[in-house]
Design a protein that fits this description.
About 20% of the residues lie in helices and about 30% in strands. The chain is α+β, with helices and mostly antiparallel strands. The protein has a single domain, classed as Peptide Deformylase, CATH 3.90.45.10. The strands form two sheets. A five-stranded antiparallel β-sheet has the order 1-2-3-6-7, sandwiched between helices. Strands 4-5-8 form a three-stranded antiparallel β-sheet. A hairpin with a 6-residue loop joins strand 4 (about 85-90) and strand 5.
């Protein structure tokens, strides 16, 4: 397995709608493994293939204390409720923003064997599902921030100590 470089804005791959996975071959299996390794190496909750430079509809999510969720060709089919969340992204380093997300979502996708799956997520899982599926559609969380005052710079620990 390989830890991949994370693509950051303004990299154009982050703004493209990712292509559907039509064949789950060894390259897709390797991509999934590399994405899990990368997500863990950077302490992320989720990662979408465009974030590692691959324009395919593949996402991985690992909520602390839970099993890794692997999603191929995921689609949100139903949502409910709205709430404000603070969100950040590995592809927009150094910033955090406040935006509205759905309280719960239902998603249909395929697992790494190509089997159809459906899952319902609430709270952090719902937020992660929305965030990663947005990436697959060329959307970054800052696109949902409605007011520039709701996006702020987050200083790294080392720089905070200098001030």
């Amino acid at each position: 397995m390989t830890v991949c470089s994370i693509r950051v804005l303004p990299d154009s791959v982050l703004r493209q709608k990712a292509k559907k996975v039509t064949s789950i071959d060894s390259s897709v299996q390797r991509l999934i493994d590399d994405m899990i390794e990368t997500m863990r190496a950077v302490s992320g909750v989720g990662l979408a293939a465009p974030q590692v430079g691959v324009s395919l509809r593949v996402a991985v999510i690992e909520i602390p204390g839970e099993e890794v969720i692997i999603l191929l060709n995921p689609e949100i089919v139903k949502v409910g409720g709205k709430y404000l969340v603070e969100e950040a992204c590995l592809s927009v380093p150094g910033y955090q923003g406040e935006l509205e997300r759905s309280v719960w979502v239902k998603v249909k996708a395929q697992d790494r064997q190509g089997k159809s799956i459906r899952l319902k997520g609430e709270g952090l899982l719902a937020q992660a599902l929305q965030h990663e599926i947005d990436h697959l559609n060329g959307i970054v969380y800052i696109d949902h921030v409605q007011n520039p005052d709701k996006l702020w710079e987050v200083l790294p620990e080392a720089r905070r100590e200098e001030l």
